[in-house]
């Protein structure tokens, strides 16, 4: 008899636990309140174009700031779409955390080149070939000047920018790129008092590899200021014009 009573009591306790557990763990999200945002920005060590304050200001202006709102009313897809339209955002992902916060992961747009064209254009080309407006902070990238339209900037110069970004040596060495009226490239290096003539905007890997070999085997021996112009326009050939005495 006592055993039956114990079993009966255990069953009642288990039933009560199940009821409480279902009630607690299945509460509707709308009953919870968003406690804020957690922002993670890719490449924030090297670039600081976006801050949490910027994102909060953007969402507030669109009446989408989630803080204090019922979590059931927070539309994370709408947040992503809105943040992605920020001029310095490449990609945004938003989701609700178990702590009732909105987690926002942002990938920034990274500038490759600054364009200062003869036609008055002044902008950046980013790492996906897009046009970026002027940036209110110093960015250490090569400056391209001369006869540049946006099509040339987003194709030929974009490919050059990607190559420079992939090479620590040339990224540091190339200071300015000048585009002539014939759409040929002249480069002003940071080290050495000479002009590098690339010719047409193509075959960057071959041309810069050849030039780097010339730097190591020739300029390191005769001096970096011996030539006033170095042409790597043609395959298997480097033409150096010496400075006049």
Describe it.
The chain is of the alpha/beta class and 245 residues long. It has two domains: 30-108, Ubiquitin-like (UB roll) (Roll), CATH 3.10.20; 111-242, Cell division protein FtsQ/DivIB (Rossmann fold). The chain has six helices and twelve strands. The chain has a nine-stranded mixed beta sheet with strand order 6-5-4-7-8-9-10-11-12. Strands 1-3-2 form a three-stranded mixed beta sheet. Strand 10, helix 6 (204-222) and strand 11 (227-231) form a beta-alpha-beta unit. The longest helix has 24 residues, at 2-25. The termini are far apart. The mean pLDDT is 84.
Biggest sheet, in brief?
Answer: 9 strands, mixed
The H/E string reads HEHHEEEEEEHHEEEHEE
- The appropriate CATH architecture of the largest domain is 3-Layer(aba) Sandwich
Approximate strand percentage: 25-35%
Mean pLDDT: 84
Q: Give the % helix.
A: 25-40%
Any idea what the shape is? elongated
CATH class of the largest domain: Alpha Beta
> What is the radius of gyration computed over CA atoms, rounded to a whole number of angstroms?
30 Å
CATH topology of the largest domain: Rossmann fold
pLDDT < 50 stretches: none
> Can you identify the CATH superfamily of the largest domain?
Cell division protein FtsQ/DivIB
Distance between the termini: 118 Å
Order of strands, main sheet, comes to: 6-5-4-7-8-9-10-11-12
Number of helices in the DSSP assignment: 6
Structural domain count: 2
Q: What's the quick description here?
A:
By secondary structure, this protein is of the alpha/beta class. The chain is built from six helices and twelve strands.
């Amino acid at each position: 008899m006592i055993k039956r009573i114990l079993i009966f009591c255990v069953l009642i306790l288990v039933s009560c636990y199940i009821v409480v557990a279902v009630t607690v763990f299945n509460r509707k999200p709308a009953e919870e309140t968003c406690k804020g945002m957690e922002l993670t920005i890719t490449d924030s060590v090297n670039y600081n174009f976006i801050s949490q304050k910027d994102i909060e200001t953007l969402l507030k202006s669109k009446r989408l700031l989630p803080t204090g709102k019922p979590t059931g009313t927070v539309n994370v897809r709408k947040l992503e779409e809105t943040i992605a339209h920020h001029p310095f955002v490449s990609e945004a992902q938003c989701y609700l955390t178990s702590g009732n916060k909105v987690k926002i992961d942002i990938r920034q747009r990274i500038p490759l080149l600054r364009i200062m064209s003869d036609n008055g254009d002044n902008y950046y080309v980013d790492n996906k070939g897009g046009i970026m407006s002027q940036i209110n902070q110093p960015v250490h990238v090569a400056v391209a000047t001369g006869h540049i339209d946006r099509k040339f900037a987003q194709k030929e110069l974009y490919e050059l920018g990607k190559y420079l970004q992939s090479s620590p040596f040339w990224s540091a060495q190339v200071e300015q790129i000048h585009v002539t009226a014939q759409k040929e490239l002249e480069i002003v290096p940071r080290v050495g008092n000479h002009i590098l003539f690339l010719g047409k905007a193509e075959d960057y890997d071959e041309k810069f590899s050849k030039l780097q070999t010339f730097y190591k085997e020739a300029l390191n021996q005769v001096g970096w200021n011996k030539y006033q112009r170095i042409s790597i326009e043609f395959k298997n050939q480097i033409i150096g014009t010496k400075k006049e005495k």
